[in-house]
Amino acid sequence: MTLFKDMAAFVAAYWMVLLPMALAVAALTWLLPRPRGRSIGRGAACGLAALLAGGALLFRSGRSVTPETVLFYAFAGMAILGGVFLIVQRNPARAAISFAVVVMNVGGIFLLQAAPFLMAATLIIYAGAIIVTFLFVLMLAQQTGFSNADDRSREPFLAAFAGFMLLGVLLIGLLRSYPESQTLARTIERLESTRDQASLQEIRSRLGDSTEIVRLLRHEAMRRGGSSRVIDFENAVIDLEAVLGSGQAGVEQIRLRIDEVCQAGHALIRQDEPKPLPAANTKALGLSLFSEHLFAVEMGGTLLLVATIGAIAIAGRRAEATT
Amino acid sequence: MMPLANYLVLGAVLFVLGAIGFLTRRNLIIMFLCAELMLQGVTINLVAFARQHGNMTGQVFTLFILTVAACEAALALALILMLYRRRKSLDVSLWQDLREPGLDSSVDADAPLEEPLPESLPKLTPAGLEPDQTPEDTYV
């Protein structure tokens, strides 16, 4: 009985994650190729619904729409669509083309993340070299279009269920460790607005339930781990709690404590923001590659050489020559 | 500024799609492409973390992933070509006699559209005369 209750509570808490997962399992079960019972219309409808529900999960209200937001959703949506096309396509050549689409959109995501060199390298290596080589092999091997094996997939429902179970667990984990990133900023703002009130009663009435605020601040501190800034912040919160609880503290004292909490909180918020990357991406990448990671670069070169020799040794033997 | 979590979610979605494709599809080349799709998901994670921490380590890791993916592509291509020469098909189920002992073989639910061709094993080249085998004197 308690198990049932726990599960109901879990579903109620995370239905926003579980709903797109269930829709995606249904979509892939219908879409994956098989001789009978494949329904592209229903699968596509479920898939689009899952994509929209997942997008709504990511999109937090109260955030201004910037070009980056639009580009991120465009690239991410195209990449996911390309990935779905890749795995549900019966024709392997079309699957290879969909993979090229995925690679291009991932390149766009790399640009958004300030990695132009990687964008170029990924496009050249994947879309330019790997896909083309595989298309060659495909043309060599399957000249008659798709075959019996391409029309079947092994256990579509179980595989989709297992895969999206993994994704659901990952998403719930992310949701718990990266909750609304603006909670701390909003709470600090609220504290700052109370500080400027004239009298003690006004401060207390503006603050509302002081234990609630302290609990919120503590939670935010706990979530950020134990760096020295977090410890400063926690100490400031403890001081504030003591002053608020004592009942005989003066206005000046409360103001001082609120100030301390706000300063430590701003330091924490700054810590959460991404740090600037070096401006010249290629130069910085080269410097890092050939100074800190020189040994790994040499090992990578050796790996490439060994793989080339291995590929020639494996594929070089011709069946015709031995008959 | 997009939060880091959004990029992590995109990476996770691509990884899971690749994993599902790798488990279900039976064409060797599509399985390989799905493995590459999983690698793409991982690289998005690494680049996003590089952006968040403001150093180049994540991008360097991504370059190494590219290197390993290129090696993997070369070797996979050679292996796929060799498997294709044996069976004249890219279907991975034809190789299921390599499975773990004690497992049942998977059989298609509906009758297959065509019979798979028999495996063509490499033949040894008969070359030259048969050597006369004189017993060697050993001094060991």
CATH architecture of the largest domain in chain A: Up-down Bundle
Radius of gyration computed on alpha carbons of chain A? 28 Å
CATH class of the largest domain in chain A: Mainly Alpha
Strand residues, percent of chain A = under 5%
For the sheet with most strands of chain A, the description reads:
none
Protein described:
The complex is a heterodimer of chains A (323) and B (140). In chain A, 78% of the residues lie in helices and 0% in strands. Chain A contains 14 helices and no strands. With 140 residues, chain B is mainly α. Chain B has a domain at 4-88: Orthogonal Bundle (Helix Hairpins), CATH 1.10.287. Chain B is built from three helices and no strands. Chain B has helices at 4-24, 28-53, 57-87. The longest helix of chain B has 31 residues, at 57-87. The N and C termini of chain B lie far apart (79 Å). The interface between A and B is large, with 99 and 83 residues.
Kindly summarize this structure in a few lines.
The complex is a heterodimer of chains A (323) and B (140). Chain A has 14 helices and no strands. By secondary structure, chain A is mostly helical.
Which helices and strands, and how do they pair?
The complex is a heterodimer of chains A (323) and B (140).
Chain A: H1 2-31, H2 40-58, H3 67-88, H4 92-112, H5 116-141, H6 156-177, H7 183-195, H8 200-207, H9 210-223, H10 228-246, H11 251-272, H12 281-291, H13 294-315, H14 319-322
Helix pairs in contact in A: 1-2, 1-6, 3-4, 4-5, 7-8, 7-11, 9-10, 10-11
Chain B: H1 4-24, H2 28-53, H3 57-87
What descriptors fit this protein?
heterodimer, A: mainly alpha, Four Helix Bundle (Hemerythrin (Met), subunit A), 14 helices, extended, B: 140 residues, mainly alpha, Helix Hairpins, 56% helix
